[in-house]
Amino acid sequence: MADLRDLYQEVILEHSRAPRNYREVKTADHKAEGYNPLCGDRFIVYLEMDGDVIRDIAFQGSGCAISKASASMMTQSLKGKTRSEAEKLFERFHEVVTGRARANGDPVELGKLAVFSGVSEFPTRVKCAILAWHTFEAALEDKQEPVSTED
Fold first, then answer.
1. Model's pTM, two decimal places?
2. Cβ(67)–Cβ(113) under 8 Å?
């Protein structure tokens, strides 16, 4: 179990140091801003939709290692997904990081996102892991007001 935790920690640190899809999408037709007032994490998520499919997704901003890694891995996981597939993955990810479900045994595959399953043991870090996801959801819904982890 310790080896698995070490691997998970390394994946999170790698994505934090070199986040994927960390850029502005000039052709974005949806975007939203999210922040966590407790720790200062703040992100903008950009979406370019092709009908119901996420053609491109990226983010910019600043945050702790967990929030930045979560945003990075989220963009990799959601690119090319339909809106429905993305919403299901968001729900599943949320269940796992909040401790309402285990990372295994569910038909919706988390893949590499399972590295965040241990976050549920640290309630103050859950908001770090879900910030980008809530910001993504706000972008899908075209919310103009920034979303907060405290709402």
1. 0.91
2. no
